[in-house]
Amino acid sequence: MIEGAAEFARRLDAFVGVVERRDAALLSFLDEPRTVEQIAEHRLVYRPHVEGPHVKPVERRTAVRHLDRLIDTG
């Protein structure tokens, strides 16, 4: 639970910053054509040493969502 509008706004701004950094990292990685699987393997969310059954699905879903949003916004 978040208490107060100021704290909510601060956290929302921080989240927007994460999205923008991931967009920038993705666009930089797309200096040549890549597949969604290559983007997922490159990792936008988890550091390379993190392992687990959740990593691949999260990375793939994140890649697709960022690609979709970037395409939609031109």
Structural description of this entry:
This protein is mostly helical and 74 residues long. The chain has a domain at 41-74. It has three helices and no strands. It has helices at residues 5-29, 36-42, 55-72. α1 crosses α3 (55-72). The longest helix has 25 residues, at 5-29. The protein is globular. The termini are far apart. The model has no long low-confidence stretch (mean pLDDT 96).
What would you say about this model in short?
With 74 residues, this protein is mainly alpha-helical.
Question: How helical, in percent, are the residues?
Answer: 55-70%
State the helix count.
3
Shape: globular
What fraction of the residues are assigned to beta strands by DSSP?
Answer: under 5%
Radius of gyration: 14 Å
For the report, how would you describe the main beta sheet?
none
Order of helices and strands: HHH
Structural class: mainly alpha
Q: Could you tell me how far the N terminus lies from the C terminus, measured between alpha carbons in angstroms?
A: 35 Å
- If you average the pLDDT, what whole number results? 96
Unreliable spans: none
Give a count of the beta strands, DSSP E runs of length 2 or more.
0
